[in-house]
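Step 1: inspect the first sequence and its tokens.
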Amino acid sequence: MLRPLSVPWVYSANVRPLATIDRILLTDPVAGSRTIGTELLLLAPLGVLLPLLAGRLDASALGSFTRTVFCGAAVSFGIECWQTQVPGRVFDVDTVILNAVGVAVAHLLVVPGTRSRLRRRRTTRHRVPRDLAPAPAATPVAAPPRPGSQDVLAVRAPAISYEVAAHLHRGM
């Protein structure tokens, strides 16, 4: 599976880490840098999108980072194994490493800041200023039952000013 399908101009499969990176940087530094940048950016969106799938704002930073990088590396490994079926394409461990590093960098650059901003937004969104805070909650008051009625408790509703009602309506 790691051998190319009889194509003479293709290098053999690389399972030695950093061998391809060293070779392309020594051959042509500009093209090598472009190739490395491409490999870093190829799966970088997974570093942001995978944590969004869970949708948890209170996830552990280390746990989220570990899961994201592992899943990104697994996707990259699967793509590398799958592309060996294409003539002229061989397995390269450096591609898996660079893709995983790209996922990790994208995750570290975007996810922690976004989560903290969303957590702050969630806690401040429903906060009501003290001067506009509603009156205490209604308390049930026992009223004497009227003959023939089913009412046992009467509830006294608190008065809410127009400003408080408008503020609560805007917050939703």
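Step 2: inspect the second sequence and its tokens, then contrast the two.
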Amino acid sequence: MSAFITSKDTVDLLTTAAMVITGGLGIPNKEAVDPAAVATADQTGQMLVNANYASVNYRYSEDEKPYEYTWQPVAELIEATVSPFVWMQVFQAAACFEYQACESPDWAESETCKFITLIRKFIDGALVDWPKVGIPHRPGKQEWRGLDECSWDWTRDQGFPQSMNA
């Protein structure tokens, strides 16, 4: 198994999703983000960054220091109605993050693991009626239609594919 430091954009995506899921934004629109919410988001993102670095450091016997995280909201998640495809991208980013951060011996009991589980469970519920398709390389397994179009380590430059937003 290998591990890498996920992009800051992936951390922003997961942090924004958590703020939306938990109602932590408390905003009527994108321009009116509560300063307390920003502080909470900064702390949440820093927790993710720290866990990612701890995992990679443990995996490769390194001692790299995590960067200082400052949240940049992902606008597509702050919209009134979030597309199922955006939720699938969050789910895929959460899977990527978990894969990169799970190397630490205390991962299963960590707050970060609970955080990722919360996001994934919410999305499972939000997409309960979304069509599923078979996974070609995993007979008998299914995934949401369109999940294969989602990026593993998401960046803003990749955005959300146009075919997904239609």
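Step 3: confirm your contrast with the notes below.
The chain has one domain: 8-165. The chain has five helices and two strands.
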